Amino acid sequence: MEGDVGLLRALLRAANALLQQRRYRAALAVIKGFRNGAVYGAKIRAPHALVMTFLFKSGSLREKLKAIAQATYAHSRNLAYFVFTYKGLMAIQSQLQGKKIPIHSFLAAFIGGWLVFGENNPINSQIIMYLLSRILFGLSRLAVQKGYIPQPKQDPFPLVAALVWGTVLWLFEYHQDTLQPSLQSSMTYLYEDSEVWHDLSDFLIYNKRTDSK
């Protein structure tokens, strides 16, 4: 027993010593990036899938739990693969050129995005739309910082909010099929189901009646 404990301690010391080796830092960063991608993807997707599945999807409890697990695994896996690919390509480019330059980040992420998120499916679609909105805000701020567009005299956010909501409700009312399925489900619940009821039960307590009355 003591021998096993001593061996374990020796292995831990060896592992910690390896982690301190600067020559392996880039490779170790790739491995930890894979780990962090997997953990973060699971943390982000699990609660979202839980809420959306139980709110909007029909089926047995087992089917719902299976859908949650599949969505969580897909998000976690894809993010882990992407971080692994991105950091690996960044390390290779830096090693080849002897230094890190801005174009490396774009190229590494471009290739990783193509390989990992290139398939058009609900999980990837949600991630890309999430990023797209952040990119638009980021590019707008960068354009102001660089002087490409003047600093607004008033906060433009109220106008942006009005344009976003005006556009998305117009699309929902007249071109609903162009919107992403989960957004359609959310908006159907908010704006269409709120116009249908039969009595107090499905007016205040339930969204829809499940009986045949």
Automatic annotation (TrEMBL):
Domain of life: Eukaryota
GO CC term, one of those recorded: peroxisomal membrane
InterPro entries xref list: Pmp4 (IPR019531)
Pfam families documented for this protein: Tim17
PANTHER family noted in UniProt: PEROXISOMAL MEMBRANE PROTEIN 4
Protein name according to UniProt: PXMP4 protein
Lineage: Eukaryota, Metazoa, Chordata, Craniata, Vertebrata
